[in-house]
Amino acid sequence: MNIRTRIILFFVPVLIAAILVTGMISFFTSRSGITRISMKLMAFKAEELRKYIESQWQLLLQYQFLDDPEFVDASRLAIQAFAQSLIRSDTELIAVFDSQAEPVVSTSPVELTEEDRRNIGDLYGEQMNGWIELGMQGRHRIGHAFFFEPFDWLCLLSEDSGVFYTEVRQMTIQTVIVLSVAMSISLVLLLLFSKYLTRPVYSIYRAMEDVISSKTLSKRVVVEYPDEIGGLAHQFNTMISELEDAYDHVKSLAVREASARKGLAQREIETLTVLGKAAEYRDPETGAHILRVGHYSRMLAKALEQSEHDQDLIYYASPLHDIGKLGIPDSILLKPGKLTSEEFELIKNHTLIAGDILRDAKSPYLQAGAIIALTHHECFDGSGYPRGLVGEEIPLFGRIVGLVDVFDALTSNRPYKKAWSVERALGLLDDERGKHFDPRIVELFLAREDEVRRTYEAHPDG
Hints:
Blueprint: H1 3-62, H2 69-86, E1 93-97, E2 103-106, H3 114-125, E3 130-136, E4 139-148, E5 153-160, H4 161-164, H5 166-214, H6 228-233, H7 239-281, H8 287-303, H9 308-317, H10 330-333, H11 341-347, H12 350-358, H13 364-375, H14 396-410, H15 422-431, H16 439-446, H17 449-458
Antiparallel strand pairs: 1-2, 1-5, 3-4, 4-5
Helix pairs in contact: 1-2, 1-5, 8-9, 8-14, 9-13, 12-13, 13-14
């Protein structure tokens, strides 16, 4: 058995096992992540519905309308309208049942079989709160349930399990394809590598045989073993030139690895941009907004003598400042008029939502994005949210993006306001020096008015 065959027989099982293990670990990790995010979103909707039902109960209680059927019915209709606003697909269902398993509120028609009523009755009897799986209307559904005792209601937020796991099925198919391609490519590369590795050895062996057969005594070649390794072992005088070739090969591998790392970093930056745009699509802001925020942030980081690495970090991480708005209902996020105090308190949660989304990230860009998203609404005088940090308790990236986000929002058109002039917006920054904003950052921003104007004009709203 020659060396090439030995290499192939040894490395093929190891290579296949490594690819399969790595692929399966990545697949199950991603599947678990998608499921957890979907479950958190369902639980978030359930909590919002519970809060709204609680608010309707408190209104009826406050004004002593609990015995007035007209007002109770009006509250039920309001709850149904709010539940409808939480629905994002035709297969998603929000239904509220009484003690007889009769639907009180539902976002789509509910026709229950006797088995359905028994299933719901069991959940009602347990006063279920948490994640559920049940059959309803001939379909398997999964979702979140909670029991609202004042109204004596069982509230179910559910989705068709087939729709819920659509992304997981797609991921399964993609994983099989990727693993198949990876193994095919790896086997081809292994064959080429084994051929590349053994060809010089075999050539040297043949050359040594030629030396032996030619009986050139000046070569002083002694053959001790009748195989390629024996022939190579007796040709120590060729080792130096072979080492030089090996060194060149290592340098080539290093160049390729550096190129691969650069490509990986570029894909990570593209992912950040896509995540930033995902948040913008749910908000009245435009894609130009995140571009301008990135340029303004890099400008201030440079003015504050931050390293080139940190300048790039804030430039690519700043688009994530409002990623938490993915968790805010459209009825509030896209409201054209002024928010109520309750709505404003709810929209504040986007900073905490962003922290939950990004807190376990290992990427330095995503870690910086988490800091920015969590702290860009903190105020220098401590009047901001969510934690009321004061002064330099607020991370530098949060202070920078907090200022440029406000400036860009003021100078941009929104459904509820027209864009301010640059002069007026700069005047407000100056007025809020030491209150809303870090005085030093305000001073640096005002000193670069020309650069600010160039950025503003170079990236207009579409």
